[in-house]
Amino acid sequence: MDFKHAARPSPIAGTWYTRNPKQLETEIHAFIDKAVISDDEFSGTLFGVVAPHAGYQYSGRTAGYAYRVVQGLARDIVVILSPFHQYICADLVTTAYDAYATPLGTLPVETDMLAQLNESIPLQQIEHDPEHSLEIQLPFLQCALSNQFSLLPLMVRTRERTKLKKIAENLLALLQGQSFLMVASTDLSHYLPLETAHKMDAEMLRRSKAMDADAVLAAEGEGAASACGASSVAVLLYAAKMQMDARAFILNYSTSADASGDTSAVVGYGAAGIYLPG
Predict the structure, then answer these.
(1) The pLDDT of residue 39
(2) Three-state SS for 127?
(3) Are the C-beta atoms of 5 and 106 separated by less than 8 Å?
(4) Mean pLDDT by 10 residues, the chain (278 residues)
């Protein structure tokens, strides 16, 4: 694989979130600080989180809950599993750059690990991509984690269970012995009336809490629920279930109506934490 020795410039800073570093940091810490989670509700080691990826004015409050459980932790590598909202003929996509830039600084990409992964699972590299769902997680990570870290960015397009399980298996093999966190980036239902969205989103969150990756993937085809990052969530759940006794906790749920007041066509947002014993 060939990587450009340059940081991917942000196409969404200044629109999806503020470009001003001090203001951005203040806003993110406010989202995290306002997320009230009982410390005795969870036990074990945080394996990964599910976080939304809309503009911060809409989903920042719910994202704050995901990153509340990340706050203060140290992880050397963050695997970000996101959708890729544009069409591309590939199952798995990654960046062509060796770093990502945000207003809060530059994050290096684990280029050697991506090259190793590419030996077993073909990766399509892209540049000048407009994808927001991966980048939107980065400033939150920069504020929440207590140490410098690198990125393993993966945009998942396939919805085939066998391929998604293989991605999970290969990721775990690649990360063996490493200090890492997995982040699955997804929004829930899109542009439905509020009451319908509540019902469908509750079903998707129920399937996620049950650690049932197959059911998460099947939900849209059944007409029961939807999530644009269902494949990303599935990889996270498959990988977690390959460990012993992984458990999922739903941390928060909201919709765009909470920010906009428009209940006629809302987008749903959920946050979850995946824990391992110990």
Answers:
(1) 62
(2) coil
(3) no
(4) 95 97 98 86 90 98 98 98 88 97 98 98 94 97 98 97 98 97 98 98 98 98 97 98 94 97 98 94
The CATH number of domain 4-276, selected from 3.40.50.720, 3.40.830.10, 3.30.750.44, 3.40.50.970: 3.40.830.10
- The token duo for 202 is 């509750």
Helix (H/G/I), strand (E/B), else coil: 5:
strand
Q: What's the rounded Cα separation, in Å, for the pair 86 and 59?
A: 21
Token output for 197: 């969205």
pLDDT of residue 85: 82
Q: Collapse the DSSP code of 256 into the 3-class scheme (helix H, G, I; strand E, B; otherwise coil) and give the result.
A: coil
First to last CA, the chain: 37
Count other Cβ atoms within 10 Å, centred on residue 179.
12
Give residue-wise pLDDT tens across range 152-174. Answer: 999 999 999 999 999 999 999 99
Report if pTM > 0.90: yes
CA atoms within 13 A on the CB side of 204: 34
Dihedral angle over CA of 261, 265, 266, 267, nearest 10: -150
Residue entry with tokens 């085809």: 221
Lookup: tokens for 22: 């001090």
| Residue 5 CB-density burial (10 A; 0-12 exposed, 13-18 middle, 19+ buried) | exposed
**Pair of tokens at residue 238:** 């498959």
Q: What is the DSSP letter of 158?
A: -
Q: Does residue 251 contact residue 273 with C-beta atoms inside 8 Å?
A: yes
- Domain boundaries, given as residue ranges, for the chain: 4-276
